[in-house]
């Protein structure tokens, strides 16, 4: 994980005002959230089972996340690498999984993989944050 130094941290906006702007800038709102915090992810690179993402955490200041009127504050953006297992499962439950389809996904090999060429990904992350900040500047709350 590489923390980025940007001017996004601490800025506030209403969730409904920024969600579509993030989406139009290539970011997805992660479905794994609770009502007090969440995150936006932007895929920076993918090859095989490796992916590098820009992740922007958000925290609810007032309201509940997933409601348009929730006031959110942006945390420190960071770049993260995720490595998934694209091979076959050969454990005790493989046959059951294959016949019933109950376990669709394998555990990742590494949810926080080592990032090579860090300066490249710092620049890519900061450029993406700048693009997003330029898009949401008009809807930020003082």
Structure, explained:
With 142 residues, this protein is α+β, with helices and mostly antiparallel strands. The protein has one domain: YugN-like (TATA-Binding Protein), CATH 3.30.310.100. The protein is 25% helix and 31% strand. The chain is built from three helices and eight strands. Strands 1, 2, 3, 4, 5, 6, 7 and 8 form an eight-stranded antiparallel beta sheet that branches. The radius of gyration is 17 Å and the shape is globular. The model is unreliable at 95-105 (pLDDT under 50).
Summarize the structure.
The chain has 142 residues and is an alpha+beta fold. Helix content is 25%, strand content 31%.
Q: If you consult CATH, what is the topology?
A: TATA-Binding Protein
CATH superfamily: YugN-like
Query: How many discrete domains?
Result: 1
Task: Determine the number of helices (DSSP H or I, runs of at least 4 residues).
Answer: 3
Percentage of residues assigned to helices: 25-40%
Main beta sheet strand tally, sense and closure: 8 strands, antiparallel
What is the string of helix and strand elements?
EEHEEEEEHHE
- Class based on secondary structure composition and strand pairing: alpha+beta
Strand segment count: 8
Give the integer mean of the pLDDT values.
85
Give the terminus-to-terminus CA distance. 30 Å
Shape: globular
User: What value does the Rg take, in angstroms?
Assistant: 17 Å
At the first level of CATH, what is the class?
Alpha Beta
Strand content: 25-35%
Low-confidence stretches: 95-105
- CATH-derived architecture: 2-Layer Sandwich
